[in-house]
């Protein structure tokens, strides 16, 4: 009788010890997934932009810009200089290294490079500040918003 009782107790203990509680792993929300994508990959595609760029190289404060995978830009709303009669724009390019975006405008006379460091990284929005163009311009910002 003791052997049967001991066997039943042992089986009950083993049964309770072997049960596992399965808890589903919560699905990551969109912010966690996009935060892992480097900016040089995430920036590819069409964005709406808002900027406070000023000066002769800026003709609009908002519009649409497309960052192509090959490093070229489609800038129909002229975020970057649209050139002048004496120096039409030949190419508009970009590159991203780490958290720095560089925008390049090549005209028949010269090449202009401006760059900014990302200050906000959200899934549908990137904000670049601390721009430099000849000299640092920390007040300038460029906000890119996915349409």
From TrEMBL:
Position of the signal peptide: 1-17
Keywords: Signal
Source taxon at top rank: Bacteria
Protein name according to UniProt: Lipocalin-like domain-containing protein
Source organism: Spirosoma pollinicola
